[in-house]
Design a protein that fits this description.
By secondary structure, the protein is an all-beta fold. 0% of the residues lie in helices and 53% in strands. The strands form 3 sheets. Strands 1-3-10-6-7 form a 5-stranded mixed β-sheet, with no helix packed on it. Strands 2, 4, 8, 9 and 12 form a 5-stranded antiparallel β-sheet that branches.
């Protein structure tokens, strides 16, 4: 299994502890064809309550598109909370055509740094280099 990190994954994050609303916009270039179980990670910083998630992608699967991912979360550090690989979406048609979708989920707060993790579940019929973008909205509520 190969892990790929987004462009802003290791960049500093503004962290206020006053419940300020914030949107985190990040992107991840996909230069090689995903294989089943490859993961693509965006950072959900500790103290962030995620209430909104939009995934956008360029057309990365030409021909008869099949490319799909599950969207969930996983702890950055070992021994963290239990991962849920399908919390946000069990099977998302990401990159089958240019466009995006909003995820439906119950807002969730993270006490530790977490990965917003896309896991490849179905490979592309004909892969083309592309980009996945995530818009993550919520409140910076701090940690307990």
């Amino acid at each position: 299994m190969t892990q790929f990190k987004s462009a802003k994954f290791a960049a500093p994050k503004m962290m206020t502890n006053d419940g300020c609303a914030v949107f985190i916009n990040d992107s991840l270039a996909i230069a090689i064809a995903p294989v089943v179980s490859d993961t693509y990670d965006f950072l959900l910083p500790k103290g962030f309550e995620l209430s909104y998630l939009r995934i956008l992608a360029t057309d990365m699967d030409t021909g008869t598109p099949a490319l799909a991912f599950s969207i969930g979360y996983a702890p950055v550090a070992s021994g963290g909370p239990t991962a849920d690989t399908t919390y946000f979406k069990a099977a998302g048609a990401i990159g089958q055509a240019a466009g995006g979708f909003d995820c439906d989920f119950i807002p969730i707060a993270f006490e530790e740094d977490m990965y917003l993790r896309l896991t490849c579940t179905t490979i592309a019929a004909t892969f083309a280099v592309g980009t996945v973008r995530a818009t993550m909205g919520g409140n910076m509520v701090g940690v307990r």
